[in-house]
């Protein structure tokens, strides 16, 4: 009896991955109910035994924005390019939070799920994808809050000009998710052996925010330092996001093209390292 005939006797056959870029997306689709359960788990466990529950989705960006308005807007008096401070800071916070949450949680996915991985077979890619999806829901809620505040300013006659760049919003969301997923898969594969990276990541992501135009517009950066900020792939995303909704900032196609290239490279590299680590990580965690 050949191998094909032997396999035909079973409903499910588990084989080792032979290629580092094998994603087995058909298998991921087959386990879509598990993906849904992981997304639900992220919500239930995160807000379990809290009084306000999902209301924290609104409280967190509001308090962060108010803090930035006080410190950077009123004390440091950093320019917001003539935009209302609350809209300027909240636009940056909303976009940055989605990327940062995807990156932070994906970067510890092997360590956080080692008990499950050691007992049950399922596509490991399900876990980082569930993080991206659950954070997308959170991003949607915070984006709604931002749009409501933007609507108030538009109704009151403030000179804000949303424009056709809003059509790029799905692309921007995909880029933020891709950056967080690719970089996160790369880091989580390393943390199985080097736990120090977990501690480095905690303040590294905070430092990276200051190299991103979240609390300042790109126009305020001196020319000799601007290339450093523009090397950060989140710079073009946030600038485009802000330009689309507020008419502030810039739509730089060359910068967006660079972001697409970096995102694609991180996804490919992250997938290769993730697949390679998946084979043996139970021996090292």
Overview of the structural elements:
The chain is built from 13 helices and no strands. The radius of gyration is 21 Å and the shape is globular. The protein is mostly helical and 285 residues long. Helix 8 runs antiparallel to helix 9 (169-191). Helices cover 68% and strands 0% of the residues.
Radius of gyration: 21 Å
Overall strand count: 0
Shape: globular
User: What is the structural class?
Assistant: mainly alpha
Arithmetic mean of pLDDT: 82
Q: How much of the sequence is in beta strands?
A: under 5%
Instruction: Assign a percent range to the helix content.
Output: 55-70%
What's the order of the H and E elements?
Answer: HHHHHHHHHHHHH
> Tell me about the biggest sheet?
none
Give the terminus-to-terminus CA distance: 39 Å
Low-confidence stretches: none
> Helical segment tally?
13
Quaternary structure annotation? single chain
Provide tags for this entry.
single chain, 285 residues, mainly alpha, 13 helices, globular
Give the SSE map.
Elements: H1 3-7, H2 25-30, H3 32-46, H4 56-75, H5 85-106, H6 109-112, H7 114-117, H8 126-155, H9 169-191, H10 196-210, H11 223-230, H12 233-246, H13 253-280
Helix pairs in contact: 3-8, 4-5, 5-8, 5-9, 5-12, 8-9, 9-12, 9-13, 12-13
Short overview:
This protein has 285 residues and is mostly helical. The protein has helices at residues 3-7, 25-30, 32-46, 56-75, 85-106, 109-112, 114-117, 126-155, 169-191, 196-210, 223-230, 233-246, 253-280.
């Amino acid at each position: 009896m050949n191998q094909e005939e032997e396999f035909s006797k079973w409903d499910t056959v588990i084989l080792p991955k032979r290629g580092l870029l094998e994603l087995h997306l058909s298998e991921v689709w087959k386990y879509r109910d598990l993906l849904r359960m992981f997304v639900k788990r992220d919500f239930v466990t995160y807000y379990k035994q809290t009084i306000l529950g999902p209301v924290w989705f609104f409280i967190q960006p509001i308090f962060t924005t108010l803090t930035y308005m006080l410190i950077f807007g009123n004390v440091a008096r950093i320019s917001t390019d003539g935009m209302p401070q609350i809209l300027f800071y909240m636009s940056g916070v909303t976009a940055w939070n989605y990327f940062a949450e995807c990156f932070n949680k994906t970067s510890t996915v092997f360590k956080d799920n080692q008990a499950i991985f050691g007992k049950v077979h399922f596509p490991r890619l399900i876990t980082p994808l569930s993080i991206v999806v659950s954070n997308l829901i959170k991003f949607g809620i915070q984006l709604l809050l931002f749009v409501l505040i933007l609507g108030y300013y538009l109704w009151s006659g403030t000179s804000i000009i949303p424009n056709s760049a809003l059509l790029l919003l799905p692309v921007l969301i995909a880029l933020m998710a891709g950056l967080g997923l690719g970089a996160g898969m790369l880091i989580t594969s390393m943390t199985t052996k080097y736990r120090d990276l977990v501690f480095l990541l905690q303040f590294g992501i905070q430092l990276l925010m200051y190299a991103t135009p979240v609390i300042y517009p790109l126009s305020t950066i001196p020319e000799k330092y601007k290339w450093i900020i523009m090397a950060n792939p989140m710079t073009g995303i946030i600038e485009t996001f802000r330009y689309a909704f507020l008419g502030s900032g810039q739509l730089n196609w060359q910068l967006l093209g660079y972001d697409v290239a970096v995102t694609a490279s991180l996804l490919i590299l992250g997938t290769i390292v993730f697949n390679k680590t998946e084979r043996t990580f139970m021996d090292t965690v």
